[in-house]
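User: For a benchmark we're assembling, each entry needs the component sequences followed by a predicted structure for the full assembly. Here are entry 17's components. Please fill in the structure.
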Amino acid sequence: MEFEESGIGEECGVFGCVAAGEWPTQLEVAQVLTLGLVALQHRGQESAGIVTSNGASPPTYTTLKGMGLVSTAFTPEALLKLRYGNLGISHTRYSTTGISELQNCQPFVVDTLHGRIAVAHNGELVNAQALRKKVMRHGVGLSTSSDSELITQLLALTPPIEERDGPDWVARIKNLMSETPTSYSLLMMHKDVIYAVRDPYGNRPLCIGRLVPISKLHSSGVEEEDTEGWVVSSESCSFQSIGAKYYREVLPGEIVQISKHGVKSLSVVPRPEGDLPAFCIFEYVYFARPDSIFEGQMVYTVRQRCGRQLAIEAPTDADVVSTVPESATPAALGYAQQSGLPYIEVLCKNRYVGRTFIQPNTRLRQLGVAKKFGALTDNFAGKRIVLIDDSIVRGNTISPIIKLLKEAGATEVHIRVASPPLRFPCYMGINIPTKEELIANRPEFKDIAGYIGADSVHYLTVEGLVSAVQEGIASFQEDKMISSSSKSSNRVGHCTACLTGKYPVELEW
Amino acid sequence: MEFEESGIGEECGVFGCVAAGEWPTQLEVAQVLTLGLVALQHRGQESAGIVTSNGASPPTYTTLKGMGLVSTAFTPEALLKLRYGNLGISHTRYSTTGISELQNCQPFVVDTLHGRIAVAHNGELVNAQALRKKVMRHGVGLSTSSDSELITQLLALTPPIEERDGPDWVARIKNLMSETPTSYSLLMMHKDVIYAVRDPYGNRPLCIGRLVPISKLHSSGVEEEDTEGWVVSSESCSFQSIGAKYYREVLPGEIVQISKHGVKSLSVVPRPEGDLPAFCIFEYVYFARPDSIFEGQMVYTVRQRCGRQLAIEAPTDADVVSTVPESATPAALGYAQQSGLPYIEVLCKNRYVGRTFIQPNTRLRQLGVAKKFGALTDNFAGKRIVLIDDSIVRGNTISPIIKLLKEAGATEVHIRVASPPLRFPCYMGINIPTKEELIANRPEFKDIAGYIGADSVHYLTVEGLVSAVQEGIASFQEDKMISSSSKSSNRVGHCTACLTGKYPVELEW
Amino acid sequence: MEFEESGIGEECGVFGCVAAGEWPTQLEVAQVLTLGLVALQHRGQESAGIVTSNGASPPTYTTLKGMGLVSTAFTPEALLKLRYGNLGISHTRYSTTGISELQNCQPFVVDTLHGRIAVAHNGELVNAQALRKKVMRHGVGLSTSSDSELITQLLALTPPIEERDGPDWVARIKNLMSETPTSYSLLMMHKDVIYAVRDPYGNRPLCIGRLVPISKLHSSGVEEEDTEGWVVSSESCSFQSIGAKYYREVLPGEIVQISKHGVKSLSVVPRPEGDLPAFCIFEYVYFARPDSIFEGQMVYTVRQRCGRQLAIEAPTDADVVSTVPESATPAALGYAQQSGLPYIEVLCKNRYVGRTFIQPNTRLRQLGVAKKFGALTDNFAGKRIVLIDDSIVRGNTISPIIKLLKEAGATEVHIRVASPPLRFPCYMGINIPTKEELIANRPEFKDIAGYIGADSVHYLTVEGLVSAVQEGIASFQEDKMISSSSKSSNRVGHCTACLTGKYPVELEW
Amino acid sequence: MEFEESGIGEECGVFGCVAAGEWPTQLEVAQVLTLGLVALQHRGQESAGIVTSNGASPPTYTTLKGMGLVSTAFTPEALLKLRYGNLGISHTRYSTTGISELQNCQPFVVDTLHGRIAVAHNGELVNAQALRKKVMRHGVGLSTSSDSELITQLLALTPPIEERDGPDWVARIKNLMSETPTSYSLLMMHKDVIYAVRDPYGNRPLCIGRLVPISKLHSSGVEEEDTEGWVVSSESCSFQSIGAKYYREVLPGEIVQISKHGVKSLSVVPRPEGDLPAFCIFEYVYFARPDSIFEGQMVYTVRQRCGRQLAIEAPTDADVVSTVPESATPAALGYAQQSGLPYIEVLCKNRYVGRTFIQPNTRLRQLGVAKKFGALTDNFAGKRIVLIDDSIVRGNTISPIIKLLKEAGATEVHIRVASPPLRFPCYMGINIPTKEELIANRPEFKDIAGYIGADSVHYLTVEGLVSAVQEGIASFQEDKMISSSSKSSNRVGHCTACLTGKYPVELEW
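Assistant: Structure for entry 17:
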């Protein structure tokens, strides 16, 4: 909800599952796909889709798509249609283009010379327009505006191998990767296999989990033969809800094949010499669920470190520390710990305020976002508050909150933002308001405190954010690398383009 | 409803409209498209779709699709989205494949190198499988099983002209026609033009109408400048409901361009030397609405002639003639006129009996189709009835009706069928039960009267049907030909494949 | 549909079913109730309701209600809820008040001191306002505007018997009947019994049928022990669709008890001395389905007689006779038979034109009702038509049809109306436009032919209509009376108030 | 969600609004009613209803009802119907009976001799069965099982005043109160007035707010003439979201009249001599939103005091304190403050896990409630946790959470419950599992820690809870009483029946 108001939005979440062992499987693949998707719901609420395959020759695919939340899009009756699936991929979508139609809903399924394939994609191709033209010049009509269809047609048309030679999907995927550098985390299903692919910059997340008996979920000694299936997901937070153990990340540039026989790394496509990885730093700041693990560290812990760093960079003479519930809470607790100020709650959020209809130009509209919050007056009346927010995008949501707190008795409200000012557009999968709408690019920003009614405002520095993120990665890099050959592709690096304007690739690529 | 029970079904109806004169038009194009489609609803009730274009450079297309009847699929609110359309095409679909999904709903819209195109199709390509493989071999992934997508991709990929040369759609359409002989009546919209195309055999119908001021709708002296727009439709029955005058048929093999400047015949692609046209004779017998005009004659009149012919071929010693309401009524009236027997009504049909849920294996199921009918007992008690039906497909619907009439007091029931026995599958757009299900191919057919409980049964002969159809065409051919150059393509001929097994083209084409 | 446009509408249909023999029954009571209701759908399309009882002590009632047609209102899943019913009543409603809400949907169910009762009602209480006030003065709050609730509360509150005495429903029903003379055909269910009640004037129809094995449906020798259940319905046309045999009418003023033990006449409440019965003559003319039986004669036959009578009263010098499909067809055939003119079809009706959205003030609106019809031009071009309509209410629907026929080539169109002009409001259950809206009360009526564009117009006389209706009743009265004691209440008489202004009871009753 | 799983549920929330000053009002009454209801959504999610009146003579009422959340039940289009309302009442319902039907949705509206009234009710009449029988003995049929209809009919039938005398609603309400002692917080609308009533024991909450210009929302000097309208609500948490200032509570036994002229206390009906008030203590513990104010104190503060008290009663040798998000958070922070242990977060909750379909008997079902939570492992691995929960009802939800924490690395998990064990049913509006289902009544309770897998378990004592609640009331009582005459009815007292079995009134009342 805050996302919608702030105007920042993630594009998508992808999730896949392959049952291990003999087929037909006893594993409830359709349910795993559904619940896995529910756990990625924060990455997109516009539409959802699932495609399963029975894995036979030829395979039977079953597709289910719907608008809205997963729980709305799929009825129990509809899910029954998927019950013969032995593997499948699923997708939840956030609309960045404003064209909210079932037709754009992923996964995208097509018949090719080499059989039916299904594709689910998180990210945004930086050179999508050039690629569309290339595909159309080949004589292909494109029926949607989605990158997923574009990717699918690119996989279908290159290289032009004869039917008898077989598809060689790995060659086709490599060819696709040579056509576009970033950003994509991709699942492609063909018959009985899922290919999990991450672009060479690793801009969007993707990780693998192992389904084990619930009773062995958290025990350390899980045997190979305990594996009931494999899952692959945008975020590891989905693993708890389906009873999977975290296995590993898909590396930047890696093509992984997941089948009933297990997980196999097929290739790691390198970046151009000298380029660092460019994992989106806003996944840590904003998008990911706090219990997800990226690069060996928990997102919650990174946010807490951001809060600590903020307390170091911008200490405040105040009585209490609090949060704008609830995404800023880890940072607020970090700030409190570092500063020694007591942590309290000052706002109570109404979870049911959603799409309630408000007529324009009424007194109720003046209440703004404050409609959603109740002030916990007794907790802070007469006190000076440090209020931690995770970001300030347009500046129009924090202002009514400050007003609410002051009118309810706060003597001072100091805003501390646990990320740097957002100044630049993203072309790699995040929906950000135009430069003109971003408060950091507007004249009011010179007196941002005055503009939003705060007693003071401080943002975390870019350096502070990067160090808070990268501090926890070092040891991980040494310990957990699965392959020495891929070391070079795993030097630490993050995309901070929206904060610094430094894009990981040339935009005219 | 009878169609569903008999198991015969039409595939589709197509409809298009272009506003004449200056744009933005005052003509209510979206409403014309909707009402035109409603008038073709008998050709398909599964889903409906409309695509409009504002005709600008580049054009804005708006698409609306939905499941079910036109009135269900499109809400008034949704139709508002189409209000800026200056031209458009629409489609209503009957599901032959059993895959009833929004995704298969037409028109199909794609972006090509030469801009966005929309395609609506009635018919079935006899060589669809070979064409699919050809398209996929070119590297195109096909996302649906519909011929419409296949046609669209064929139009997009051939010939491989450079962007700067422009699309040359006529060459592309001719190329398409060289790839597949039949059956298709096709509407293709590109920017500000609709191309109306009929396959060289003229297997599916297509005709053109002119929108004039309502006040001049039926006056003979309509001036060129009175034209408010042009419509193109599977059947002319749609013209009355939108206030259009019948203009002419699209000829077999003809490519017609319809724009705001008027109607222009671009080409007539010939059939192979010696081949006759092959307009589906079952359009006359069964599918078309009785007020539609094909080949210069009204369907109702043909059906009435079939009834007369039937009375000549199979006279009956009986008291009264009646009909199975209501598609057989014209034939019944023809039979009555020819035989001199009085025409009466014996059955009253409940229009609301539709998809009411009946549990299997109950006594109510034994009532069968008789549930839908009330016997008008007083009209026929103690009398011998000649009951005209338009066709007997499986033999399971006429039987309970005969039982109902007899139990209500009819002393004899003689069945006269106004078409010959159905014996062969159709590969050109009509959904017919398998050969094994057709009563005419079953052992019971030897004693069909006994099997269905009638006192006697006679079918119209193939010769009788053909002569009843073609008798009205002769004068028409001489009078109304629009172009002498196309004479050769208009010799009289009809497809009777489902009755005779003689298909107009080699099936392995 | 015509009803809606003409502005005349029936209020409701009621239907009940009790399984005979041992309970739990094998009879599919819920399906019988549903299909019976579907067969009464022409009496009301706004909402539908079913209440079943298992008949136990205490009984379990199950209620299902929904908006729209029966097929829309009840899903197969929902109908499953009713599967334990051993008896039940159902109702389909036409909205006369404009308040179209689920809340007004019948049957109405309440808990009383003597257990739960359910009530379904067809008709309109002439003294409803006075009764509402009486009930409210007793201290009862009324939650709907429906007469059904009013009747239910009247049954609950009178007479004030103590719980230990039992309800004595017959006394309560008689008391209700003493409070209001007409109009009501009523079904009341209590535990294991349905009471079927018709007001002393017999203004609304009600009849009883017997469910027998389908195999014995039309044989004459049905034994007592063959009875599978009893049904009670507004019209006998519903019997065919559920496999029931017509048993008899409920008499004016009669209270019939239907239980698993059979049908029992409890009482016949007499009319005031000298009053005749007043069965609504418009049931014959317009509302009822042609295969229904009233007063021993088939509605179709009466309509045919009206056509014959019309030919006698208003002969025409013309070439052909035809009908406005399809309610006027029996009268048209009657006119043709009497006049010797040939009967043909001139109009083809599009069954799918329904609630399609048409923007106001467009050229399409000018087409009016003609949108629904295709002209069968070849049948009548150059001919003089006698066109039979069943009634002309506002005069706005026949006019575009005449125009359509003339423009399509009819040289003359003579309108013959198979009923007299409508001039007065109905207070007994029929929705009729206001006096000012009725064409017969307007100045234009003086030149009605000119006004609607016909070459001549003639209506059936009131005397002609009454004799056409009553001619078939005489013999029936002598033959079939079930009880000599009730003879006096069955002298022949009909309500012609909407035609003559003579109401069967004082309106200030 | 937890409520549903724990099996405790509130019955309802009520909300009303009257526009001040001249009518038609400029105040967006329908929106205020809707948003007010949204803020009470935690009190009931099954259905919602709104009734507005224009306040004229006679008034026009408009009713809107729907199933599900307020945002689902009311579309923007539907809300437009309410736009002429000058006052109105609304209701949100939690289904306790399992009969989830639109019919039971409140407010209940009826026509009485004295005009139409609408009633919304929170609570449960302890003597509902006796009252139902009394009403039915009077001859009233009851169409629903809801207490709201019962109350409405009681208001309608007593006393039997003649129409000319006027309704005297206050006498009728007093009569109702003499018939039933508890529990009810009631809104009754008649024409242009809302009566707000609270039962003499004050068992359910009800308070009044004043709508002021948004700009003056939190300033202290609001003038009489600034009043834009009055609102009345189950909880004051709704005031923030509509821009209202807290005005005062409705007192136990008080009848308040709210009109455009202001708020007027009409009467305070006393309790029997010696009886204390009996405000439901579980409103503090569990149901109410933390920012609501009861008896002059914020619910959040009471919960925090419960946490402090729990730390005193049950100190723990542990490393960190945490919460089961998120209702237990105030108590957890209180426990942390009192104990000096650091407060951390250990669980991350997936807000989207809702009604997702899980097949029974699958491995996913074994995950239980843990599906909803992600473990924030890094925060607590290797530590001893004190986990605060607000209540343990059945014992089946806390157990999987403990398992999850332990498997994720917690060395000890000590459960501290911020309320006493639930042992007795509630007959006054709260839905509690049967005695047999309550874990505190089961044999397993003797070793509750072992049963749920905790290292130790302690509940707050009843005395501890009561003192935590009442400690904040003392000063309030002296300061804020609006009327000295009502002092006696405001001595401090709470209903602890579900904990102690001591009910405020005799149950056979």
